[in-house]
Amino acid sequence: MPTTAHYPDNYAAPDTSAVGWLWRWLTAASIFGNIFLNYYSNTRPFNGQTMGEVSARYPTLLTPAGYAFSIWGLIFLGLAVYAVWQLLPAQSRLSLPTALAKPLTLANVATAGWVVLFAYEEILPSVGLMVLILALLMVVYGRARRRIFVDAAPAWVGVPFSLFMGWISVASVINITIGLRELGWQTADGMSITLTLGLLAVVVALGLFISRVFRDMVYPLVLAWALVAIWVVRLREVPELGWAALAGAVIVAVLGIVFSRQGGRKTPWQIRDEAAAAREAEIAASRSMSAGE
């Protein structure tokens, strides 16, 4: 029988063992636990203050208008749907839940932990945890998108992770800015605006890069959502920053959609993933035949 050891992150080896299913249940538990803790933190705030109240104590030029944070509702809805979907027996033949289980579980636990740390204004530890969350979501996102590329997973599965990573990308920039300020890093007002404009350019470039490489239109749209919210809150105070944010939102939204719909020459990892996906399909087919005998 052909070996599958050379494929990354158990690509062609869905784990249907007891341990594999345990990790799927842990994934679901971490998602719903994260949702519950975020709800709880707003109804019975840790340290007597909500996330919005703490955020208001640490303003930055990149902090978006309050309404922008409502995107968490969409993120949590998508994650909840995925949590249930990956537990269904029909998904036992897919390697996707196996590959995502550990990093996604850790990302949700870390996100819940960040809420507690930030509520207690443990700024520097919260920055470290935010960077960890982003790193874990990059793993989750990459593994999901690669399977979607080769039809080894349904396209909709990538949406929750695009939403999650997109928003955490913006939150990381803001959190790091707050952390630098806590370390005593200060700049003159003019320099702060210049640096913020530079960070906006980085956010736009990141959105275009992700949309082009991973053919994803959701991720850049999340960034556009955040940039529009920055425009709303900064237009009167710092007009040049507000208009730059709006221009960035238009660019990343329009070009992000265009880039996401463009093909291109296949990369070595795409070719390798196609081979792995074919092997995964063979495994699923063989299991179906075995079950039918």
TrEMBL record:
<feature type="transmembrane region" description="Helical">
    <location>
        <begin position="241"/>
        <end position="259"/>
    </location>
</feature>
<feature type="transmembrane region" description="Helical">
    <location>
        <begin position="153"/>
        <end position="178"/>
    </location>
</feature>
<protein>
    <recommendedName>
        <fullName>Tryptophan-rich sensory protein</fullName>
    </recommendedName>
</protein>
<feature type="transmembrane region" description="Helical">
    <location>
        <begin position="217"/>
        <end position="235"/>
    </location>
</feature>
<keyword id="KW-1133">Transmembrane helix</keyword>
<feature type="transmembrane region" description="Helical">
    <location>
        <begin position="20"/>
        <end position="40"/>
    </location>
</feature>
<feature type="transmembrane region" description="Helical">
    <location>
        <begin position="61"/>
        <end position="85"/>
    </location>
</feature>
<keyword id="KW-0472">Membrane</keyword>
<feature type="transmembrane region" description="Helical">
    <location>
        <begin position="123"/>
        <end position="141"/>
    </location>
</feature>
<keyword id="KW-0812">Transmembrane</keyword>
<feature type="transmembrane region" description="Helical">
    <location>
        <begin position="190"/>
        <end position="210"/>
    </location>
</feature>
